[in-house]
Amino acid sequence: MTEQPPAPSADLAFALALADLADGISLPRFHSNDLRIDTKPDRTFVTDADTAVERAIRVRIETERPGDGFLGEESGRADRGERRWIIDPIDGTSNFLRGVPNWGTLIALEVDGKVTVGVVSAPAFGARWWAEVGAGAWGHQAGADPRRLRVSGVESLADASLSFQSIRQWDEAGYLDPLITLSRTVWRDRAYGDMWAYMALAEGLVDIVAEFDVKPYDLAALAPIVREAGGTFTDIGGSSSVWNGSSLATNGLLHAATVHAIETARTA
Fold first, then answer.
1. What is the mean pLDDT of residues 222-242?
2. Enclosing domain of residue 210
3. From CA 111, how far away is CA 267, in angstroms rounded?
4. What average pLDDT score do residues 75-88 get?
5. Element (H, E) at 211
6. Longest Cα separation, the chain
């Protein structure tokens, strides 16, 4: 008998509804001929789809959860109380504007400083993943039943598949030598990119994902999904936070060895 997800809490149900709202805005703009693209001060791109998705989500939160705070990539912070929604309207904007389907909306709820709910919706893939602390991690393809997510059982770096995300990230962070060393240690290295690499980790398809120059809205929704799938999610040094500008997600079995390999190579 196929394992079924537990009934969602009110918070998770609301997050999933926000994902439906986002998909209804973003997917029709994907591959559109009149997509408006601007460059932000940090030289990253933003499209009219990014801003429209975030605006709609923020309005829904302010209307239905007026006591909750908000942190969005495009519109910043509006903090109220001990609960805060952390939103990336389109993670993978560069993919989105180039017509690459690896993009999605990231929705997280932080309560008393801890992320309790995470939803990743990738409508161009026809896929969605979600988790709530204590309720497991789940995913489904369009038209299919939900399935429980579990990380791999790989125990050795020599057998591991690594997604390093971007050579430039590691180089600019001063970690190029550790990346090269790690790539020579693992079985396979690829740069799957953005939210998809972490979801592949949660599904047991990849064993290690790490990157730099990331913000809380890039990571918050991913962390509970990885953790509820049995993995470990920290910053590059092993601290359990999405606020430190880097990330290291593994199947858990490889986490200490990965941190050690990176730090050893960095100090060599």
1. 96
2. 157-267
3. 37
4. 81
5. strand 208-212
6. 54
